[in-house]
Amino acid sequence: MEAPTSITLCIFVLLLVAAARAEDPYRFYTWNVTFGDVYPLGVKQQGILINGQFPGPQIDAVTNDNIVINVFNNLPAPFLLSWQGIQQRRSSWQDGVYGTNCPIPPGGNFTYNMQFKDQIGSYYYFPSLAFHKAAGGYGGIRVLSRPRIPVPFDPPAGDFTILAGDWFKLNHTDLKGILDSGNDLPFPDGLLINGQGWNGNRFTVDQGKTYRFRVSNVGISTSVNIRIQGHSLLLVEVEGSHTMQNTYSSLDVHLGQSYSFLVTADQPPQDYTIVVSTRFTNPVLSNTAMLHYSNSNGVPAALPPPPGPTIEIDWSLNQARSIRWNLTASGPRPNPQGSYHYGLVNTTRTMRLANSRVTINGKLRYAVNSVSFVPADTPLKVADFYNIQGVFTPGSMPDSPSGGPAYLQTSVMASNMRDYVEVVFENAEGYVQSWHIDGYAFWVVGMDGGQWTPASRQNYNLRDAIARYTLQVYPGAWTAIYMPLDNVGMWNVRSESWGRQYLGQQFYLRVYSPANSWRDENPIPKNALLCGRASGRRTRPL
User: Which of 69, 326, 510, 529 has a 20 to 30 A CA-CA distance from 53?
Assistant: First the structure.
């Protein structure tokens, strides 16, 4: 064999360099998780801090960036972080819920290695174990479009994040104890905006310029409404989808949801009130922040604070129906969002999911199709990988309500890769439900009052329904979605009302591919933590 020429070696080196440069960028973070004293409502509490911050650090990224976060758990309890709306393509190993990941033990660490594959938009992260979410530990995630991908609005002069949600004066351990004793959570004590109480935040703008606000409801029990004194909200994005640019005086943001809107500073140079208030509650809780014009000299606006909706269901339902997909705008790729004609694909399966409040063994529980979820002793994804028997049974979550008595079960719904499913969420209770599905975005094709029937499909929006990762179901109503099962893994389907989730209103969707190929799913991470019945096993050679 002839020795390679110098030209051949040069070409080989150039190809290696080109391949390295073609790889998507990496962003590295080191996070230290600790308890610390917080006073958001004027009462000393035990909060969860990340690098000493409450809320935690914001993640700023671009489509397809690789995000590497080494999380050190300095709490005296196991800990996990989950990434609301990040789809973890082919890698439910990084999802950060107990059904997929062994917890980070006290004093230990785990490195999340994620790619924000084919995603843009507004997201957040939060602690998923025990009742840690009630102690903070959350933060915002902004995923920007790649430079050459057109965005359907001019670059804003600034980009603000608002993490809003209800808050309790009781420590998270006390709230967990209330639930463990078989009782429901009390009414929240207040609302926070970016971890602060009344007028704790100020957003400075220049007169005449336009700004983007990303709002996420990071609370655990109530929907909220947001509005800005004297200013309109131009909705541009919902959970990774560009929307038709409708103007609103205020927006409802249900538990777990994220919206972004543009605000133009087109008013006289004064200070204007941003109001966040609870929806469908009595009493109504509220919190305020300040929209500060840089040339206002601190002069407050003479206008009255903007009133908001309170208990009106129809108002919220009509607003939700008005939010539509922008068919001509590019998403994370250059092709228009509407190039995928979701309404022309035949569904292969219908799932009907009915939530309920139940009593089991004398204690309060919540259920889906009469099944109240209980965690197994081993994460389901880990047990599935090692084929550990007796941890869960695929198909233990029924496709439709049974009407029978409620029972406890580690419920897993079996499904197949490339199925195209219709899921109908049915809510016979008098409480607005908010649902999230990990690993996926889906089209919200319909919602209405009353009982869903096959005839309800006649009113589905099969053209420009919004694609998103959460949905709300109004009292005595239903919401339907279409979802292509194109992401193999073990995915949490849960109530975003955290007390209901904790007491059983959740299950796991196992999306299975018989190919067992790395093309469909990444292998178990080399650094995966192992616990329960998987303790002592090996992942892969380092």
Answer: 529
